[in-house]
Write a structure and sequence with these properties.
Blueprint (H helix, E strand, L loop, with lengths): L1 H31 L12 H24 L1 H20 L6 H24 L3 E3 L9 E3 L2 H37 L5 H11 L2 H24 L9 H25 L2 H8 L3 H13 L1
Antiparallel strand pairs: 1-2
Helix pairs in contact: 1-2, 1-3, 4-5, 5-6, 5-7, 5-9, 7-8, 9-10
Length: 279
């Protein structure tokens, strides 16, 4: 953390400089070098010159971008330095993702056992060339249970992810206002008041991910079913999913921070954040 804090500014500019030099250098090499010596493979001379010119142009565009957005780059380096200082002063927060990962592994083990139990509620059947375990013919009721069980997996995974986001954002908020124990205060607010808020936010995230999973599962991928209309439909569906995902991210991003500031519920805080974004 000490290294990141005191080298963030020069490290960002060093990466940008290396990227610019790499683009311009590789582009000049492709233009000037003999065709047969480029990566040891015979390349078309026109393609090599064109690709080299594009790399040089890309390097120039990066340089122009750095000059135009140097204040934003400086702000990004300051954010990295502040983040390193926050983690240094709250070392306990580094163990939170590891703890949640262990909880996730334990839940997955239990979830798999439950899934096998639900599958075995069907009628045993025997088939030719089947896998070396007992097969069952499931009823519609069992299929609905399995369907809900899969959604439970999505919800719990999203809940653990949102738990990490909520506690970290709360610790950062308390640390900004110079509280004595930012991590302890954030975990207390989570346990005492806002587990339901995190559960609601994770429910919306899991619902969106689950619907997209069902769509991808039901969408045919066979080449003979592809056509102009099918490709256009898939493109429109992807655009709709991206739009919904962007709206949800605008609605969800910053909601937990506002919860820590105002102690409101999830929906009220998310609407407040959305209103601030639209102003």
């Amino acid at each position: 953390m000490f290294f990141i804090r005191f080298t963030a500014g020069c490290f960002v500019y060093l990466l940008l400089a290396l990227s610019i030099l790499a683009c311009i250098g590789l582009g000049a090499y492709l233009i000037a070098a003999p065709t047969d010596s480029v990566a040891g493979v015979a390349m078309n001379r026109v393609f090599a010159i064109t690709f080299g010119a594009l790399l040089i142009l890309f390097g120039i565009l990066i340089t122009i971008g750095v000059c135009c957005y140097r204040k934003r780059i400086r702000l990004a380096s300051i954010i990295v330095q502040t983040s390193a200082r926050f983690v240094k002063e709250n070392c306990a927060i580094s163990f939170l993702p590891l703890l949640l990962f262990v909880v996730l592994i334990a839940f997955l083990a239990v979830w798999i056992l439950e899934a096998l139990g639900y599958y075995s509620m069907g009628t045993p059947v025997s088939q030719d060339k089947q896998w070396p375990f007992q097969h069952f013919q499931t009823t519609n009721f069992v299929k609905v249970i399995i369907f809900v069980h899969v959604f439970q997996l999505f919800w719990v995974v999203c809940f653990l992810i949102e738990t990490n986001d909520f506690i970290v954002s709360g610790a950062a908020t308390s640390w900004y206002f110079q509280r004595q124990s930012p991590y302890s205060e954030s975990t207390y607010r989570y346990r005492r008041f806002h587990i339901g808020s995190v559960a609601l936010g994770s429910f919306f995230m899991a619902l969106f991910g689950f619907l997209r999973f069902i769509y991808e599962l039901l969408t045919p991928e066979k080449a003979e079913q592809e056509g102009c209309m099918a490709n256009w439909k898939k493109f429109c569906d992807c655009c709709c999913f991206l739009c919904v995902s962007y709206i949800f991210n605008c609605f969800n991003s910053g909601a937990y921070t506002f919860i820590h500031l105002a102690s409101d519920g999830y929906c009220a805080s998310a609407w407040e954040v959305m209103g601030l974004r639209l102003k």
